[in-house]
């Protein structure tokens, strides 16, 4: 009898567990599969019990109950299991009721949100239709106003055109009358002028004849004097040419002698300059250790003097340059080659001679110190020929 009771308790517990699982599965299924709403709603997270877990728990309970126990303890245990199963069933039912309530509330909220959305869409559509009708009415009124304005302008243009036509006809008539009067006056003036021209022409013919006679006489006299003057000018030109040729020959001889003298001086100066450069380079090496900036400035001054001396050696001087000066701008490469030279400012003759001398020298002495060269690569050279 007790064994049967124990089996009955196990069966009841098993049936209760399977019933709970079936209810949970049934409630969790969604047969209608409604379309997911676009609007926001409350999401209910339903928890589903694992059937395998429940079966495993039931088996463990059955195994525990299958062990031999005292009859009284077993009865109390069956009663306790039944009470626990009932309480669990009641709790599950309550949770299912709460979940169902929340699901229905979520569905209601979704339905209300969808309805509100549809209402807003309908209201927006009505507003757009109303605005469109208003815009169409405004455009129609605008077209009517444009048509009226166009008709008014057309009438105004027609009136202006008619007035302009009448004005032109009147002006044409007045112009024709004025032209007729002018033609008559012009004809009278022409006749008067023709008479005056005839009288003037007759007088001019007489004057022309007298003038021709006088010019003929004067021309003969002028030809005679021109012949005499031409002969005198030829004599003077010949004498001037001979004098000029002699002066040019003397000048070229002086220039050749000056060039020869300068070539000899240049060779001498070149040697002196090289010796001086060696001495100054040695002095520069000693001075650089004491003050770099002072040394660089000294180099600049030294090579500026050397450059000036070199350019002046190549200059072709003329007595007219005495006491005159010229300042020319020069740009040099790091090797001393002349990159460019301007036309200078000062006496034109001195500037021309100085520029020609720089170009002829082609390569000028420059310092090896980069700092000194940087100060000397572009400079203004003042030339003062000493004659």
Question: What can you see in these coordinates?
Answer:
A hairpin with a 5-residue loop joins strand 1 and strand 2. Strands 1, 2, 3 and 4 form a 4-stranded antiparallel sheet that branches. The protein has helices at residues 2-28, 51-66, 71-290, 292-314, 348-361, 370-376, and strands at 326-332, 338-341, 345-346, 378-383. The protein contains 6 helices and 4 strands; from the N terminus they run ααααβββααβ. With 387 residues, the chain is mainly alpha-helical.
The CATH topology of the domain at 294-381 comes to Fusion Protein Consisting Of Minor Coat Protein, Glycine Rich Linker, Tola, And A His Tag, Chain: A, Domain 2
CATH class categorisation of the domain at 294-381: Alpha Beta
Shape: flat
Using DSSP, what is the number of strands? 4
Contiguous uncertain segments of 5+ residues: 1-7, 29-50
Q: Quick check: average pLDDT?
A: 78
| Strand content bin | under 5%
* Helix coverage percent: over 70%
Largest sheet geometry: 4 strands, antiparallel
CATH architecture heading of the domain at 294-381: 2-Layer Sandwich
- Which structural class matches the secondary elements? mainly alpha
Distance between the termini: 158 Å
Instruction: Please state the CA-atom Rg, rounded to the nearest Å.
Output: 65 Å
Instruction: Give the oligomer, counting copies of the same chain as homo and different chains as hetero.
Output: single chain
Number of helices: 6
N-to-C SSE string, H for helix and E for strand: HHHHEEEHHE
Organism: Aeromonas hydrophila subsp. hydrophila (strain ATCC 7966 / DSM 30187 / BCRC 13018 / CCUG 14551 / JCM 1027 / KCTC 2358 / NCIMB 9240 / NCTC 8049)
Protein name: Protein TolA
Transmembrane segments: 7-29
Biased composition (Basic and acidic residues): 71-160, 168-274
């Amino acid at each position: 009898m007790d064994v049967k009771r124990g089996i009955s308790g196990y069966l009841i517990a098993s049936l209760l567990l399977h019933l709970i699982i079936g209810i949970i599965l049934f409630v969790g299924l969604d047969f209608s599969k409604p379309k997911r709403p676009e609007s926001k709603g409350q999401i209910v997270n339903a928890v589903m019990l694992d059937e395998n877990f429940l079966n495993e728990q039931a088996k463990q309970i059955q195994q525990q109950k299958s062990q031999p126990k005292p009859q009284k303890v077993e009865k109390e245990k069956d009663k306790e299991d039944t009470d626990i199963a009932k309480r669990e069933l009641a709790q599950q039912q309550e949770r299912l009721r709460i979940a169902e309530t929340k699901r229905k509330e979520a569905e209601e909220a979704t339905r209300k949100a969808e309805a509100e959305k549809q209402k807003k869409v309908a209201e927006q559509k009505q507003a757009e239709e109303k605005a469109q009708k208003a815009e169409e009415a405004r455009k129609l009124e605008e077209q009517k106003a444009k048509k009226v304005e166009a008709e008014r302008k057309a009438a105004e243009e027609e009136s202006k055109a008619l007035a302009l036509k009448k004005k032109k006809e009147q002006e044409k008539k007045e112009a024709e009358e004025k032209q007729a009067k002018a033609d008559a006056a012009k004809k009278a003036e022409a006749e008067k002028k023709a008479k005056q021209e005839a009288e003037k022409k007759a007088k001019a013919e007489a004057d022309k004849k007298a003038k021709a006679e006088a010019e003929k006489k004067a021309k003969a006299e002028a030809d005679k004097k021109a012949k005499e003057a031409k002969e005198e000018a030829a004599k003077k030109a010949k004498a001037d040419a001979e004098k000029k040729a002699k002066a040019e020959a003397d000048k070229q001889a002086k220039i050749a002698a000056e060039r020869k003298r300068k070539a000899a001086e240049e060779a001498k100066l070149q040697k002196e300059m090289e010796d001086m450069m060696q001495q100054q380079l040695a002095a520069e090496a000693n001075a650089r250790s004491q003050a770099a900036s002072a040394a660089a400035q000294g180099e600049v001054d030294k090579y500026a003097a050397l450059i000036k001396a070199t350019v002046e050696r190549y200059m072709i001087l003329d007595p007219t340059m005495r006491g005159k000066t010229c300042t020319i701008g020069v740009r040099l490469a790091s090797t001393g080659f002349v990159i460019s030279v301007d036309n200078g400012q000062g006496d034109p003759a001195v500037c021309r001679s100085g520029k020609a001398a720089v170009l002829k020298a082609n390569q000028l002495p420059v310092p090896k110190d980069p700092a000194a060269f940087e100060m000397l690569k572009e400079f203004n050279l003042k030339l003062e020929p000493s004659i």
